[in-house]
Amino acid sequence: MATRTEITSGLAEILEEVAGVNPDDVAEEKSFTDDLDVDSLSMVEVVVAAEEKFGVKIPDNEVQNLKTVGDAVSYIEANH
Amino acid sequence: MSTVDVVVTGLGATTPLGGDVASTWDALLAGRSGVGPLTQEWAGSLPVRIAAQLAVEPSEVIERVKLRRMDRSEAMALIAAKEAWADAGLAGTGLDAERLAVSFGSGIGGAITLLDQDDILEKHGPRRVSPHTVPMLMPNGPAAYIGLELGARAGVRAMASACATGAEAVALGLDLIRLGRADVVVAGSTEAVIHPLPVAGFASMRAMSTRNDDPERASRPWDKGRDGFVLGEGAGALILERADHAAARGARIYARLAGAGITSDGYDIVQPDPECRGGIRAMRMAIEDAGLTGTDIHHVNAHATSTPVGDMGEIMGIRTAVGDHPILTSTKSMTGHLLGAAGALESIAAILALRDGIIPPTINLDDPDDRLDLEVAAHKARTADIQAAMNNSFGFGGHNVALVFTRA
After folding, report:
1. Which Enzyme Commission number(s) are listed (chain B) (predicted)?
2. I need a labelling partner for B390 at 20 to 30 A (CA). Which of A8, A64, B51, B255 fits?
3. Which domains, ranges and CATH numbers included, belong to chain A?
4. Tell me: the pLDDT tens digits for B287-307?
């Protein structure tokens, strides 16, 4: 089981690869769209990459609830 | 003949000979071939294992995250258009975005994206298909990306007429300015299909050279030993501008885009009309549109792709429509055939030949076809006093486009 810190840093890697987000900017309180400038198409890529990396399923109707990095970390922590 | 004059104020390109216009032009004048072996694993089983690949990879120029959302053809289009835009010095001149249009095409479109994403679909299922797939493969993608980058708001047009696309996109740009729909048009074309399926498709048509053991000598327009075209990739962009608009801002002017002619053969889906009737009409139309006669055209950058039939039909056409005096060249002997982008790149070559008074060579013309009865700048660049130059582009589907450029 990955810790919250490990999940956050895993997401940071994905965000850097997919959307060019600086890993130093990734923190639990950051909003994907407002703070990290991840657009809707890139968010789709982030979700698919996260599913693969953490072995979880993130249904489309869940994605809209993942506003911040912390929301995603919590979902992954609870479901992987 | 129109009363609105249109001039060329900027040029941009990324080609098998260089990452910009200056390096490409130097290589063309030096007679350098951009053709080489295809060393990719997939090429091993194909009958054609040579191509003219880009000299400078887009990844060296465009930032990684931006590049992964673009098809290769879109990236090349953007590189060429940005160079042309900077070259024209239009940034910060207060140009009204609603008077800036884009006319930029591609012969085939985002084929590499389509094929790569199909591989992902087959191997990993639909969820792994990139959400950027559609904007990457749509044929208007290159024009749209340029429009987005430059903020063009007078319409973004995407021409598609196979190997005549680049020239036809320039012709449309001329129309847009003459009709008063724009003051400035970014015109050109892009092509990136060096990939096993398009290569296999052209090879199955027996349209391509199979001189795999001697890549630099494979593209040999008008030579007796020619055995088909060599596939190239790249993009070319021209900034077309209403002449009084360019004069008002003191712009450097390369040439006048004096006339264009567009016809269709109505003959065969891929075979050129052996009598070049459509080509002749296009050339005559362009010359008349420019207010000139055949004798005024001193140089023709020919379509001449190095195929057995097409090369000689065009010679007959030029003789009929222009005369026996122009000095010809086929820069495809060095760049390979850039398909949809050919007309844009070759327009640039014709414009620079006008400006510099020097015609780039046709390399590999060692043993000219007996029917070649016009003068060609064979082997070495040729100096010449050129007042008007023509570019011909013909495409599958029976498209014929001729453009006439005159000295500024």
Report:
1. 2.3.1.179
2. B51
3. 4-79 (1.10.1200.10)
4. 999 999 999 999 999 999 999
